[in-house]
Design a protein that fits this description.
Length: 178
Amino acid sequence: MTFLQKMRGNGQSPPRVSLAEVCWSWIGSFCGIAAVALLHYKLVDQNGLLMLIGSFGASAVLIYGAIRSPLAQPRNLLGGHILSAFIGVTAFQWFGGHPWLAAAIAVSTSIALMHLTSTLHPPGGATALIAVIGGESVHKLGYLYVVMPTALGAGVMLLVALIVNNIPKTRKYPEFWL
């Protein structure tokens, strides 16, 4: 098979989900993102939502909309974000004078370590990248970025996923913990 033949794709698109599944995904993602944002607004800062990092939007798609995916399981959600946040902060501290290099090292090293630790969670790559390109407010946090917003925010979203995803009889979350 040639290089170009590999790009044709032979699989089928997944079937559409039911309206009930769409509604539960919406409810879960709304509650999860709202909980993280409200926690930040009430406890940390009413002006900015630093605790609500962009990668949590992608995590919401997985943990509320693709709940059976191995990438959406608690080990992957928490491990992927926390490990990637640590790598991102380290990359910025070591290579921040060259942001292009720090960004590339943060994302690629995060992917490699998530693979090696069986915690692959695609939004983790964004969490690492945010540590590098997030600006002064993120850089000032240093390794606190790993704890808050990353671990605390992912933990809140996990708690919401455990509740909302298990309300309907047709959904079960998680598939596995470890």
